[in-house]
Amino acid sequence: MSVNLQTPIDYLKGVGSNRANLLRSELGIHTYQDLINLFPNRYIDRTHYYKINQLQRNNADIQVIGKIIEFKEVAQKRGKRLLATFVDETGVMELVWFRGQKWIRENLKLNKTYVAFGKPNWFNGKFNIAHPEMELQEDHEKNLRSAMQPVYPSTEKLLSKGISNRMISKIMQQLFIETKGKFIETLPDNLRLELKLVNKSEALFNIHFPKNQELLSKAQFRLKFEELFYIQLQLIIKNLIHKSKIKGFPFEKVDTYFNSFFKDYLPFELTGAQKRVLREIRSDLGSNAQMNRLLQGDVGSGKTIVAFMSMLIALDNGFQACMMAPTEILSVQHYNGLLELCNKLKIKIQLLTGSTKTLKRREIHKSLENGDLQVIVGTHALLEDKVKFKNLGLAIIDEQHRFGVAQRSKLWHKNISPPHVLVMTATPIPRTLAMSVYGDLDISIIDELPPGRQSIKTVHRYDKNRLNVFRFIRDEIAKGRQIYIVYPLIQESENMDYKDLMDGYESISREFPMPDYQISIVHGKMKAADKDFEMQRFIKGETQIMVATTVIEVGVNVPNASVMIIESAERFGLSQLHQLRGRVGRGAEQSYCILMTGHKLSNDSKTRLETMVKTSDGFEIAEVDLRLRGPGDIMGTQQSGILNLKIADIIKDNDILQLARYHAKTILKKDKKLSLPENLIILNTYKQLSKYKNIWNYIS
Ligand code: ADP
Ligand code: MG
């Protein structure tokens, strides 16, 4: 039969149905195409051999030449393992098999010289290699060896079933024989010429069988570029389609609400960044497309007022607006803040949360549906089916990382036509990542703090300095300030964490006794009403110290609180630390953040703490966080498929990403439908990629 790249892998000579099944289940390789796109993780020098006495504990895969002098079977919990004593002139090591022992006993010979290949482990005072690849030295020398032998992704199961790296290399060779190494070009000539990209066939050959580093680098560059280029193309096209298909409500005018607020009631001069972002939002709202905008701004940068003024535009056009926040405390706080502003403008506003009483709830449902109620603030309660709007024009979501995508789309479907959506977040997504994840999702950034804000002094203190820290707290309270003390709460160790929190609370209570000192405590196991009560006491200044778990992380605003003490700070992630720190520094006073830790710190913890001490720039912090944790935890990355890259690395290959994005954008700008002859290759490739979803699983 003639071969094409969609041919199932079973047909490749030397594969057969057993191996094909394993390749499918373990590596997701279904077709020739999938196999070709199985790119090596790295390359090793197969012309280099180690002596046993040169082995190091951190060696990756290596080769050792030696002889098996003895086999031994050792019983273990389940079944047994087979050990071979392997020696060279410098020492002794072990080879270990947990499975396939019969085959090994029958096929490996004692006292013959072998090349053993694998990753050495240090165990019971000597090195061993588990499931090594074994080859007689004479065979090894006959086979062509290269200083750049690819190491393919693998799994333990594959190895134990004999699908070794060598085997994969072999079937890869077979694939190149059957296809004659000719592959359809997927990037147009002009682009390849401009960027000096090698052609597809050359790139694929050199990625799998590189002769030297230079050829390999060129191949890698070309394939990484291609991968990122088509993702960007896809994201940008998706966004264009979204914009042209989904009609929003054009808010044609800016009228009395907005104007009179701006003239008479705006409590302060807007910062330049706030004005710029408002203009961006205004222009979205006025167009025919539905706004879907992410508003990023560090804690305290003043997102709320921007959100409120956007709501006024909706109201000026006869629409309703809502604001959703992830917690009860936050919704109440937003509600109180907005209530004051709404009263001045005679705007009807209500609060809807899980603890809204039934009667009140019914009244709210009714007035939302008949349009009497103009603004609603609330929690998830807004998403309930019973909540229906007469004409919801703008939905604002605060701190979006707490809400899933599904929830957001629920808000969308509360109308015949989706409302404009503004998502606010204080956890900045590094710019670079944001665009690779969202393509052209519109992003506004408030990158300027309101004037007069003092920067927060941040220090790292060890537990043994606690007495000094207590003295500092006492001094600050004497000046009339309030203090947060926050304890970590990690789900996995919840009970221990609560114990830490309660122990901490007790020792604080001893150190700061009543009646001179009043202490609030808030944590997740408390009833909402109790939490609220304690919170309110702190907000009103009746208590000087707030002991809490991270429930206070999001949004809480107490300008008089000037000290944030974070206990076991090494256990918090960077973005969380940054969020917590943002709870202070909201008033005119100098504020402080004290990161308390034990003495033993991992390298990552040290980096996190140093970063916090060094900078308060949320974007800089986000970049460090991205480097430390990888993109997996950052919102949106799961859906975007950016984590399933086959060859590019979203962090290390950022330059290539920018380049790819630039070219994808430029091409689409000139030729939105990819209908020019010069873009035919792109169009075909793009269609192909969308068709065979399993091949490039990042096409969602
Ligand atoms: P965040 O972006 O964290 O949600 P907020 O909207 O809560 O920040 O604003 C933080 C504080 O700064 C609030 O007390 C708010 O009234 C105040 N604020 C916002 N914008 C300005 C401004 N332009 N000038 C002075 N104060 C401002
Ligand atoms: Mg806020």
UniProtKB/TrEMBL annotation:
Domain of life: Bacteria
InterPro entries linked to this entry: ATP-dep_DNA_helicase_RecG, DEAD/DEAH_box_helicase_dom, Helicase_ATP-bd, Helicase_C-like, NA-bd_OB-fold, P-loop_NTPase, RecG/Mfd, RecG_dom3_C
Organism: Pseudalgibacter alginicilyticus
PANTHER family per the UniProt record, alphabetical: ATP-DEPENDENT DNA HELICASE HOMOLOG RECG, CHLOROPLASTIC (PTHR47964:SF1)
Function (record text): Plays a critical role in recombination and DNA repair. Helps process Holliday junction intermediates to mature products by catalyzing branch migration. Has replication fork regression activity, unwinds stalled or blocked replication forks to make a HJ that can be resolved. Has a DNA unwinding activity characteristic of a DNA helicase with 3'-5' polarity.
UniProt protein name: ATP-dependent DNA helicase RecG
All copies of domain Helicase C-terminal, residue ranges: 465-632
GO molecular function, one term: 3'-5' DNA helicase activity
Lineage, opening ranks: Bacteria, Pseudomonadati, Bacteroidota, Flavobacteriia, Flavobacteriales
Positions of the Helicase ATP-binding domain: 284-446
